[in-house]
Amino acid sequence: MSVIAVVGATGTIGSRVVAGLAAQGYEVRAISSNPDAEVEGAEVATADLTDADQALTAIEGADGVYLTPPQAGDDPLATEAAVSIKVINAAARNGVDHVVMHTAVRANLGDTGAGVLDNKTGIERALADSGVGYTILRPAWYLQNLWGARDYLEQGVVSMPWPGDMVWAATDVSDVSASSVAFFDRGHENRAFDLHIPGGITGQQIADAASVALGREVTYHEADVSTRDYVEAFPISDAHKDIYAGLFDYFRSTTYLEDPQPIIDTLGGFEPRGLNQFMQEELFPKT
Hints:
By secondary structure, the chain is an alpha/beta fold. 41% of the residues lie in helices and 16% in strands.
């Protein structure tokens, strides 16, 4: 396999996938809707992937496709479904060997009540039924979300709308990109893998990890507000705030956790990046 088309190549995860693939010697085609996009290590193909013909052309000649289901526009979930299905169909029509796609932990269940998870159920099914070789990665809440809380952590506090001992699944984005590249090297598995820190994390663990990284105490406080009020200050659209609030409500209703051991075993030696490692290497690195 030599040519990999990357959907979402300018994003947080996609850009890392591009870099990882280029470092492994793949020819990378970065697909972007922005005609002025420049992606280091990749040829850029401009396409509106909500258009089936443009999706078909953008993927033509690719041996593999990396798909980040995009959530953009006034109706992010509708965009996610439309683009993903058109890319999957284009991959099938072009005879692509392997699609690596990331969705989310519990995207396979459906009817969870969390739109950001349930929207991906049909997308996963479409890929599995497409006839294309595939590997699905199911990450969880990203540790990189803590960049939004960095200033508060430096001031000695972190707050979330649930108890400090509540457990939920969390993933470092670098693990998504690293495992994606590893699966392109390995070949399609025709299955899905949960991808998160074994055992999950808690708010108190975030506070403890920040305390170690900063060398001073950080305390956890449960925010006594609704999830929608909690996300109101997030620098995202109202539609995305509604999506996050729905996901956080789901976190509070059940233990959002699955089993990452199969991906660890399959990739041999792969270890998800832990919370303390993220804090000390990325969020608060020693200078």
